[in-house]
Amino acid sequence: MRRPVKRRYDKTSGFGLSAIIAFALAGGWAGPGLAQTMDSALARAYSGNPTLNAQRAFVRATDENVPQAKSGYRPRITASADIGASIIDSAVPAGASSSPFRSTTTNRLAPRGAGVQITQNIFDSGRTRNSISQSESQVLGARATLQNTEQNVLLDAATSYMNVLRDTAILNLNRNNVEVLEEQLRQTRDRFQVGEVTRTDVAQAEARLSSARSQAILAESNLKTSVARFRQNIGVEPRKLTPSRPVEGLLPKSLPLALNQALANHPAIIASLHGVDAAELQVKVTEADLYPTFSVAGVVQQRYDSTFSGDNRLSASIVGSLTIPIYEGGQVYSRTRQAKETAGQRRIEVDTQRDTVRAAVVSAWGGLEAAKAQISAAQSQVEAASTALAGVREEAKVGQRTTLDVLNAQQELVIARSTLVTAQRDRVVASYAVLSAVGKLSSRTLKLKAENYDARQHYEQVKDLWWGTQTPDGR
């Protein structure tokens, strides 16, 4: 009876390190369809993630600020037309004129006309010039925010991918543990029947099996949660996920280099700096309302029946207009002060963003180093636990170990394997987190097989448009 039991135990306890990794990771989420890799999952997230697509739409909307600002240099042309009807009855009393009789006159007119007015800004104290510069800063800031959003989406996708692998592996380990404990319980009951063990040993085996079943149920619940997150971040259900490697080859060689790269190139910091530029330019735009403006307006009008039937008049004029603000109730002064305070706020936010990025780099780097150390320790733990379990089983055969000793050794091995799987997952995720923290996690850096989105293309299409309501994509 013991020989088949021993073979089953050898199946689970005799894993080498490579066998553990293959069992825990390569035996991951199974389902119909082709196998999915980390790169294919990230490429799908890059192309179809709603959060990322929404940010791209926001950048395109921000691009339109530039032609709106440039409109300040362009003429305003308006046309107007009107038509109406009027009746004028006039009476002249007798004796009021050369005629001794009262006279009455009725004029029926249809006054109408049309005109065109062209207004051209000549000088606006720098308002338009600064508005254009401000809108360009807003575009650059939006692009940097898009890059940061891309980083966050790719990091979430990579984390979701590895979470499914980890939770699938842990579920497999727990299910296998249930099978082993079921066999252990069967053997313990057989030994109880022949008087080799006590009822206590049977109860201990039953308790440990119930605990293992509970852990398997919990692992299955965790896997379902991870699958749902995978679907949310990547857009499809996981199918036959393949193991993934860390991207440490793309990382800086040391923490100081990582900090320097992050503080110089992180898109969140760049977006904040463009926010400062836009806020400072807003001060100048607001101040322009306090200074003179000069414009020229040309008007051409054609009128009919203005004073009498058949009247026909054509008029044209050109007028230069100089406007000098004197006092507007203090509103512009208040808006200028407000804009200055906002600019100060944006400068402080840059410092805050730098501190946030610095902390993220240090945290991610520490997480990566810790994961590496944990893998080394977990590997030793798995090997030692495997050896210990084999020894305890042999000793239990000759009565030197109890059933509880065997159960404890089995549990320690399951924990060691789960720890190794989790550490392997943490190392991969931490490598992506470091790449994101230094501002380099992108489709181009990872060389994903996806069409790279070029935010400059839409900007070039719309920045100098004078008319048209149709977007470049045809909407």
From TrEMBL:
Source organism, top-level taxon: Bacteria
Main location: membrane
Family: Belongs to the outer membrane factor (OMF) (TC 1.B.17) family.
Entry GO terms, CC: cell outer membrane; efflux pump complex
Database matches in PANTHER family: OUTER MEMBRANE EFFLUX PROTEIN, OUTER MEMBRANE PROTEIN TOLC
Protein's recorded name: Channel protein TolC
Coiled-coil residues: 171-222, 368-395
Protein species of origin: Bosea thiooxidans
Alphabetical list of InterPro entries matching this protein: OMP_efflux, T1SS_OMP_TolC, TolC-like
